[in-house]
Amino acid sequence: MNPPEQPLQRIAPDVKLGTNVRIFSFTNLYGCEIGDDVKIGTFVEIQKGSKIGNRCKISSHTFICEGVTLEDEVFVGHNVVFTNDRYPRSTNGTGQLQSEADWACIPTLIKRGASIGSGAVLLCGITVGENAMIGAGSVVTKDVPAGATVVGNPARLVKLRPPKN
Asked: What residues does each domain of the chain span?
């Protein structure tokens, strides 16, 4: 008889997990904070210094790098990528491989209730407003207002909903 299948996960001891967090196989979490009632899909990596709010859903194949904050009730579609460096380089000025001392992490903030469509790429240093919608495959290069829907490459405004009271 075969032993029961164990999920293949790497959850470092420094991860702060809330209650009722569901984490699927092939995930890699380290140095991050995960709120309550969060669902993290297969093949997701969440790096140190990232903060995930309560009741978020992070779909499979997503990469959340250092410096990203998702407030409560954020939806992240499949294969979404965040960045944290505007000018990534392999080596520093002396030709050595870069280390953490050679660059500064640029934070990104996704506000409450925002939704990010599958395949989107979000460049660092932006804020996505409350209840905003990022269309699938969009490349977000600048701030997105609350209630806005943006699509395309680069992402552009197609609709602006009035804020909820």
From this structure: 9-86+104-160
List 17's β-bridge partners, or say none.
Answer: 34
More confident residue, 83 or 9: 83
Q: Which pLDDT score is estimated for 164?
A: 67
Q: Is the pTM of this model over 0.90?
A: yes
Query: Does the structure show a pLDDT above 80 at 74?
Result: yes
pLDDT of residue 146: 97
SS (HEC) of the chain: CCCCCCCCEEECCCCEECCCCEECCCEEECCCEECCCCEECCCCEECCCCEECCCCEECCCCEECCCEEECCCCEECCCCEECCCCCCCCECCCCCECCHHHCCCCCEEECCCCEECCCCEECCCCEECCCCEECCCCEECCCECCCEEEECCCCEEEEECCCCC
- Range 9-86+104-160 has CATH code 2.160.10.10: yes
Instruction: Write the pLDDT tens digit of every residue in 76-94.
Output: 999 999 999 999 999 998 9
